[in-house]
Amino acid sequence: MFGYDWPRLHAALNDLPAALLLLAVLFELASVILRRPSLRVAGYWTLVTGAVGGVLAVLSGLQAEGHIAHGEAVHELMETHEKLALITLGIFAVVALWRIVRESRMAGTERGAALVLSLVGLGVLLTTAAYGGKLVFEHAAGIPTPVLEEEIHERAEGHHHHGAGGEAEEHEHDEAAPADSAHVAAPADSTAPGGHTHPPGTPPHKD
């Protein structure tokens, strides 16, 4: 869809809901601490929007699972990531529905309970994101095998910069840096006695 396969679509859809749900919890905390009803309203709408976006993120993730080439390690991480994502969505969906139905009639104790549940959901959300990061940055999940093989080959060859004359200059990052020119020994002065040299300003030898 629009040039996106399921893994790319999931990557495009999962960041915004996570950010909105995080903001929703922060807005709610701020409204309690600062006693600002406007922050509570902002948290309410951010929560509802984030929960709806979370549904799209989870659905796209479930589809992406079947389109990612992977081994056993990635499979186990994906299973854990999926379970945590479903738990996260379930918690925030309950809180969102709870507030939709009860928002205008919530007393302090009930609102506090909803906030505690939101904090639990936030903890699970952050854990879900950590597992998603492991999938991408530690196991390259979602990157097609031919693309990954080509990238490994290119990294092994290093990279080149083209100078002003169009000639490629190869960089060898793994080699030791050349010796500092300041520490290179100066050539021996053939006129100095005994074939050795002295720093400039040293008085001549007296025989």
Describe this entry's structure for a reader.
With 207 residues, the protein is mainly α. The chain has a domain of 137 residues. The chain is 63% helix and 3% strand. The chain has a two-stranded antiparallel ribbon. The termini are far apart.
> Percent of residues in helical segments?
55-70%
Estimated structural class: mainly alpha
Helix count equals 6
Shape: elongated
| Model regions low in confidence, pLDDT < 50 over at least 5 residues | 175-195
Placed side by side, the strands forming the largest sheet appear as: 1-2
Number of strands: 2
- Which value, in Å, is the CA radius of gyration? 31 Å
Average pLDDT level: 82
The end-to-end span amounts to: 92 Å
Largest sheet: 2 strands, antiparallel
What fraction of residues sit in β-strands?
under 5%
- SSE string, helix = H, strand = E? HHHHHHEE
Summarize this entry quickly.
With 207 residues, the protein is mainly α. The protein has helices at 6-13, 15-34, 37-65, 72-102, 108-137, 145-157; strands spanning 160-162, 168-170.
Task: Give the topology.
Blueprint: H1 6-13, H2 15-34, H3 37-65, H4 72-102, H5 108-137, H6 145-157, E1 160-162, E2 168-170
Antiparallel strand pairs: 1-2
Helix pairs in contact: 1-3, 2-3, 2-5, 3-4, 4-5
